[in-house]
User: Fold this.
Amino acid sequence: MAVERLQNFIGGSWIDSNASETVPVHNPASGELIGECPLSSEAEVDTAVQAAKQAFVEWRRVPVQDRIQPIFRLKGLLEQHAESLAATVTREHGKTLAESRGSVRRGIQMVEAATGAPAMMMGQALEDIARGIDCESIRQPLGVFACIAPFNFPAMVPLWFAPFAVACGNTFVCKPSEQVPFTQKLMWELIDEAGFPPGVLNLVNGGREVVNAFIDHPDIAGISFVGSSPVAEHVYKSAAAKLKRVQALGGAKNFIIVMPDAEMDFTAATISESAFGCAGERCLAAAVVLCVGGSHEKVRAGLIKHMNKIVVGDGSKEGVTMGPVISREHQQRVLAMIEEGIADGARLVVDGRDPGVPGDGYFVGPTLFDGVSEEMTIGRDEIFGPVLSMMQVETLDDALDICKRQPLANANSIFTTSGKAARTFRYEVPASMAGVNIGVAAPMSFFSFGGAKGSFLGDLKAHGREAYDFFTDRKVLISRW
Ligand code: NAD
Assistant:
């Protein structure tokens, strides 16, 4: 069977990319080649941006209650096609069908939240700010926005931005991850069917050339980036130097603090789900458990018990609870980090190096290390795979000090039955997505999403109220008649 080559969607039409280079797309559960993603050029980015720029002229004049009508239709189409979207996510990314369904559901909730634009776009007014002078502040769209997505949530992440951007009257160009481009192909087919005017939403497939062309393009007003911290920093610094608005969501090394008074079985089950759900390829995944005082033995026993229940395999199959990692290269990287953990002196409590799944998939089993320190690579760097580390500390303050020393601060949680400990945690913890007795502290569409320190570069975070600030300018009009 011929391998499908992805197309771009520009100005309301599907267009072949003239790229000479492509990236192979594999099903990570089998290694099977399922497609080719073209590495589109700077010129193709320009064509998309020109289409978006032209569409902006009319789109910004469409009343907001009319702009949200295709967004409502898109919501209906996403519901109708939720199952095929989830199957596509599983096929190209590897996560289980249940996980893919959950991520599609989260994406749909973004579309729902964006239909609130008529209320959220409202400004403020005050008469007589001086005698006979009135003042009003209104929100206006800014033009063309671009989004750059990571591989780990192929359906959801572009929906963190696209519906809000266009509901505000902007137009949009999206670059999916070249490792998982098929879900956005299906998404854009639905966008096409929903009836947005040509050029309002465009899709350009590719890699870093597309990213750098976005950064350099004078007609792009702002960029939303989600991916690893080094690339987030590159995008943030270089796009800001080109005077663009930027929100750059980066990598993570998430801590979970367990107090001795926590409900241990619930805690261990929840941490296990946090660390090994989506094979650990979540920016909110638990990476390190900080066991305070006497909690250590109980947490470890509970984790081992719950990890033993995990069934590794092809995520499209019934009964499988953990799929492969994204690529052979990433599998090798995760395995190398496990070896480094052993060499550094950490104790390998559950060994996932050979999960025994037949075939050519990119599997790593759930892995648990104890006796990890902040200086070890596994205790310090993002692994982005199914590897969980345990550290033992004396007090809550010691645990919080470790969180504060870590340069990344995406999501941290505490498990406790003490209100005082929870309050101290909430007050002191540096990560700006924080959970109390929650394993994956994921803000929903009507709250804002994003970490702190090296995990988030910018001022305005993704979705929620902050989306309306990122995607609009607040113009103040002062008048005297
Ligand atoms: P990545 O940084 O490798 O790639 C992200 C995007 O940047 C892709 O579209 C890719 O094409 C592009 N890119 C890659 N290298 C580039 C370069 N040198 N120059 C310009 N563009 C480049 O990230 P990934 O491996 O796709 O995703 C995993 C990472 O994303 C993890 O670090 C994870 O923590 C992070 N992530 C963060 C969040 C969050 O909300 N903070 C959410 C999801 C994923």
